[in-house]
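hey
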């Protein structure tokens, strides 16, 4: 499945696995001493889901836009789930009704690979004092 993710000022295409969940913007708890792209953790399905601001991580710009359209994309990789906060989500359909999306050249990202990169260097998320 391919999703079109809205960030601050741009959109990217993301191929996602079948177990990827598109969630409403869950409330999260902010944690001290973390990089600005880590918003905190949310409780989801009786577990903790780290919430990463995808716009801030990729573009160094905090997410902006209407709060009611924000979504969290829950992606599993390496036995851990990570929630990527985005401004909006559109599922890309392969039909003539979506010609505008098909003609737009979007950068493509792999959320599962990004999740694994974050897991490989957990110390990179902590602010040094």
């Amino acid at each position: 499945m391919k999703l079109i993710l809205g960030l601050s000022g741009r959109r990217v295409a993301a191929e996602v696995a079948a177990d990827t969940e598109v969630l409403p913007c869950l409330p999260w708890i902010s944690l001290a001493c973390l990089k600005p792209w880590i918003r905190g953790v949310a409780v989801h399905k009786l577990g903790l889901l780290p919430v990463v601001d995808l716009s801030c991580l990729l573009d160094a710009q905090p997410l902006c836009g209407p709060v009611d359209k924000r979504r969290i994309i829950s992606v599993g990789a390496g036995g851990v789930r990570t929630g990527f906060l985005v401004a909006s989500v559109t599922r890309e359909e392969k039909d003539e009704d979506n010609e505008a999306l098909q003609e737009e050249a979007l950068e493509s990202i792999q959320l599962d690979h990004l999740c694994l990169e974050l897991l490989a260097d957990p110390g990179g998320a902590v602010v040094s004092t």
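Strands lie at 2-6, 11-15, 21-24, 28-29, 38-44, 47-53, 71-77, 80-86, 88-91, 107-110. The CA atoms of residues 5 and 89 lie 5 Å apart.
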